[in-house]
Amino acid sequence: MTSKFQGLFAAGLLLSTLLACNTGDGACGDGVVQRDRGEACEPGLLLEETCESLGFYPGTLACADCGYSYVGCGGFCGDGRVQAAFGEACDGDDLGGATCVGLGHAYGTLACLPDCSGLDTTACRLLAMVEVPGGTFQRDDDPANLSTVTGFFMSVKEITRAQYWLVMGRDPTDETRSSGPGDPVQNVSWVEAADFCNELSRREGRDPAYQFNYPYATRVVSVNLDADGYRLPTEMEWMWAAMGADTAAPGAVNRTGHLTPFAGSDGENAPGDFAVFGYGSGEEGATRFNRTEPTCRRQPNILGFCDLSGNAREWVQDQFFEWPAGPLTDFHRKDIYPGDTRVLKGGSWTSKAVWLALSYRVECREFEQQAGFGFRVVRRGPR
User: Do residues 217 and 239 touch, judged by C-beta distance below 8 A?
Assistant: First the structure.
């Protein structure tokens, strides 16, 4: 009896030992995850892993051939499929058909943010700019009053409503005086235009040109025209670009540009081909609508700039004052006083043809916001 009991005990002990010492020498499906044989899981044994813990969106994780099967998981950022249900706006090269231009920028390369949550516009450029060569011109009827400007870049268009909204997150335009987001932004004060310049400069990693009375940002206390950021053009820069610089005689002093009746004029063409002007005036070529038009609907001047005359008036850098006599180089008034009156150039859709002249100037206080007050921007040229 004792011998039989001992035999049964020994057999049970042997079986227990074999089970306790299972080292995973069996095949896939034996219920033991054998890491040294490349197994990640066993059917029904996922080792507490889930779709989310393995970097996927929620779903059902499974084990197939002792490896994780992600078929039931919701995919992941980077798989090239836009999965809106999981908050993706894009994925890799799939941008949902979006482009820099389609988002209101002038050009550039659009990308997807690393977490697929949105579009990366870092390499998009909001503005198309044209380089204006330096040169010298006669600024008024006195042949001794010559202005010399260093080369610079200027935006092809007046800043549009869409561009202003992209940078500042708002649009102050009176919509009853505008045909849409492609029109020039309006109701912008000189101070607000300077603030736009600084914000756009920061977005592109450039040095802001304007110093504000922070934290209030209600007025500009200084301006650095040597900064590589955006700013408003000086009146001399604006006139030089509007008259076409020295394209008529490269390298020569432009003696007649200040007499130009509108930007783009060759002495024979009509203002209505180049400018949105004259609402209600009855003049030939005048607009029939009491509002702006989309930028660049009319012909550009010889340098490629649209709407330098008409559509919206344009703030420039300068305070309103009488110019000093004699030769001037890169001239602008450096004094900045609160509430200064500033210069607006170019006329608007309500201007009569005579007010489109390059020499015509309007003054207004820098914090004034009016329908028809817009702007364009410049950057310094190569140094």
Answer: no
Asked whether residue 214 carries a pLDDT value surpassing 90, the answer given is no
CB atoms within 10 A of CB 56: 20
Closest C-alpha to 185, from 200, 202, 207: 200
The CA-based diameter of the chain, rounded to the nearest angstrom, is 136
Predicted confidence at residue 198, as pLDDT, reads 97
Task: Using a cut of 0.90, tell me whether the model's pTM lies above it.
Answer: no
For the chain, domains (ranges, CATH) are 24-76 (no CATH), 81-125 (no CATH), 129-380 (3.90.1580.10)
d(CA 229, CA 107): 18
Cβ proximity of 260 and 308 under 8 Å: no
User: Going by DSSP bridges, is the β-strand pair 135-138/362-365 parallel, antiparallel, or unpaired?
Assistant: unpaired
Helices (H), the chain: 2-20, 161-168, 190-203, 235-242
Helix, strand, or coil here: 33?
Answer: coil
> Would you give the distance in Å from CA 21 to the centre of its chain?
67
